[in-house]
């Protein structure tokens, strides 16, 4: 039986409870990456925990078949968010998928396991966030990991999250890597090891060719575990506000099919609903910028002006080539389906963005500002645009954006969606990096390594050559890479939302445990650092000693370029 077939107890319908009947020490809001991980660690530490998830159980087969994840976009398992019209992207409203099931976006993402660069975390620490430098967080990455290659100074073994070398890689993706090498970019078989720069295959959060989401890795074992701690997970539970007694969090109000409920939390509430919903719930609960709350008709219980600010995200842009070599369009063929169902091998093990790498557009930079995702498929408009024939796509990606946006509450109605304003490309530097990325993608596309596969450049196309035309192409075709962060920023200034133990400023017994606490976005895919954040805040909450900094040699050399 595969891992995701393990049966666990998840409540979808709950009987009515008498007042005071339910007894939980902690209530965790959101069963995405952060929520699954922190709930599991709290239960492991002996606590009585309730985990509330607005979505559904992770039972749909497409969740667990890696290459099927684009089929989940705009489905009932997707929150299907949309940004405000973007001034610098030709007025477009960008689609933002977010997982609406156990595992959250770790059940809908491309499974790439990237921690980030040493410089990312050292910058957090340099801003006054004690214990968040690279040397401090590396032990938490290692604790959470079960790396296929075994334990080392950079990797963990035996942790909840399985990380493996993907079972399938298309030959075109390896040829793209060879093209980068032809241009002088070094090969790198481990972007989470001694250095981030270079090109190669991505490690993925899969186990035996199946997706290993946070729900599979953390939640299911915790629900099945016996011990002093307890954990109950409820789906279909849409949290409407955090309950406060003065400046103390005392519980949660949520709505399910039976109506509105309140559940107390004797030791506190952990908000892990993600970079959109975590600040939105704070604002719905009366915690946020006074003027914004008053405009929405929400009583102000705690004026905290940074809530929702500091929104950051990664953008990428497709550079597409036609080819005669069949790619992932064939993943759903009868032969590939049979191979996957019998052996969990073949094209359906693909995560689409199979290879890539990190590089600097300026050699003087302290860390990469550009990432590539490469796939043997047409990936434009999140996979919704279709063209005849076969294609491969290089996706240069902006990983150190300077543009900042915000999440705003629009109504006191908890069912009303917040306003998402990423303010993409408001800093001209970000557009410049993407232009350089498209130029580099074209150089790679013209290398000898790809000669046997290359037909025509389909996008941007031969008529898009001048700088102004490239900028216009980017404004029209750039997409989110699904990495929103930063809206409950960690720090100690007036616009910080949580302190360096992830406690909400001015409110006791309330923590945030997701990507919203990042002061600045990490370079690369954000699922791994979100899990690390949850691992670490669990120790803060339980009052456990922090994991010690690793070997001094690792501390001196890990993940530097």
TrEMBL record:
Matching PROSITE patterns: GMC_OXRED_1, GMC_OXRED_2
Residue span, Glucose-methanol-choline oxidoreductase N-terminal domain: 99-122, 274-288
Keywords: FAD, Flavoprotein
Keyword Transport: no
Superkingdom of this protein's organism: Bacteria
InterPro entries referenced in this protein's UniProt entry, alphabetically: FAD/NAD-bd_sf (IPR036188), GMC_OxRdtase (IPR012132), GMC_OxRdtase_N (IPR000172), GMC_OxRtase_C (IPR007867)
Recorded family membership: Belongs to the GMC oxidoreductase family.
PANTHER family per record: CHOLINE DEHYDROGENASE, MITOCHONDRIAL (PTHR11552:SF147), GLUCOSE-METHANOL-CHOLINE GMC OXIDOREDUCTASE (PTHR11552)
The protein's name in its UniProt record: Glucose-methanol-choline oxidoreductase N-terminal domain-containing protein
Species whose genome carries this gene: Deinococcus indicus
């Amino acid at each position: 039986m595969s891992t995701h077939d393990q049966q666990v107890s998840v409540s979808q319908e709950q009987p009515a409870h008498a007042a005071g009947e339910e007894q939980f020490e902690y209530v965790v809001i959101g069963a995405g990456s952060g929520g699954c991980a922190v709930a599991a660690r709290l239960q492991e530490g002996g606590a009585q925990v309730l985990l509330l998830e607005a979505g559904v159980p992770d039972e749909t087969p497409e969740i667990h078949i890696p290459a099927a994840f684009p089929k989940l976009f705009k489905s009932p398992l997707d929150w299907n968010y949309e940004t405000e019209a973007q001034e610098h992207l030709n007025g477009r409203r960008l689609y933002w998928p977010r997982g609406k099931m156990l595992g959250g976006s770790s059940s809908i993402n491309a499974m790439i396991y990237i921690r980030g660069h040493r410089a990312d975390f050292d910058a957090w620490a340099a801003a006054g966030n004690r214990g968040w430098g690279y040397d401090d967080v590396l032990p938490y990455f290692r604790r959470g990991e079960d790396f296929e290659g075994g334990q080392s100074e950079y990797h963990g073994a035996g942790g909840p999250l399985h990380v493996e070398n993907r079972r399938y890689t298309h030959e075109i993706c390896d040829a793209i890597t060879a093209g980068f090498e032809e241009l002088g970019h070094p090969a790198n078989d481990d972007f989470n090891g001694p250095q981030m720069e270079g090109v190669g295959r991505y490690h993925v959060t899969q186990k035996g060719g199946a997706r290993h989401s946070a729900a599979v890795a953390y939640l299911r074992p915790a629900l099945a575990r016996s011990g002093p701690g307890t954990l109950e997970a409820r789906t279909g539970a849409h949290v409407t506000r955090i309950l406060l007694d003065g400046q103390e969090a005392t519980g949660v109000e949520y709505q399910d099919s039976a109506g509105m409920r309140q559940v107390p939390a004797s030791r506190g509430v952990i908000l892990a609903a993600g970079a959109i919903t975590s600040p939105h719930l704070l604002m719905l609960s009366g915690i946020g910028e006074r003027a914004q709350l008053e405009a929405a008709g929400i009583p102000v219980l705690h004026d905290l002006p940074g809530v929702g600010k500091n929104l950051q995200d990664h953008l990428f842009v497709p550079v597409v080539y036609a080819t005669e070599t069949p790619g992932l369009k064939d993943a759903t063929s009868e032969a590939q389906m049979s191979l996957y169902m019998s052996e969990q091998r073949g094209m359906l093990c693909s995560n689409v963005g199979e290879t890539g790498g990190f590089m600097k557009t300026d050699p003087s930079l302290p860390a990469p500002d550009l990432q590539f995702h490469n796939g043997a498929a047409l990936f434009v408009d999140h996979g919704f645009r279709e063209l005849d024939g076969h294609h491969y796509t290089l996706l240069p990606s902006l990983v150190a954006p300077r543009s900042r946006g915000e999440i705003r509450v629009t109504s006191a109605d908890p069912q009303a969606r917040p306003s998402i304003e990423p303010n993409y490309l408001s800093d001209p530097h970000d557009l410049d990096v993407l232009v350089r990325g498209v130029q580099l993608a074209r150089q790679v596309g013209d290398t000898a390594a790809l000669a046997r596969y290359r037909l025509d450049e389909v996008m941007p196309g031969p008529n898009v050559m001048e700088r102004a035309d490239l900028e216009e192409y980017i404004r029209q075709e750039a997409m989110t890479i699904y990495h929103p962060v930063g809206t409950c920023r960690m720090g100690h200034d007036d616009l910080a939302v949580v302190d360096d133990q992830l406690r909400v400023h001015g409110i006791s017994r309330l923590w945030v445990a997701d990507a919203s606490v990042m002061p600045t976005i990490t370079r690369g895919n954000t699922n791994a650092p979100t899990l690390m954040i949850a691992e670490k805040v669990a120790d803060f909450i339980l009052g456990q000693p922090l994991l010690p900094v690793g070997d001094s040699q690792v501390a001196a050399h890990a993940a530097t370029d």
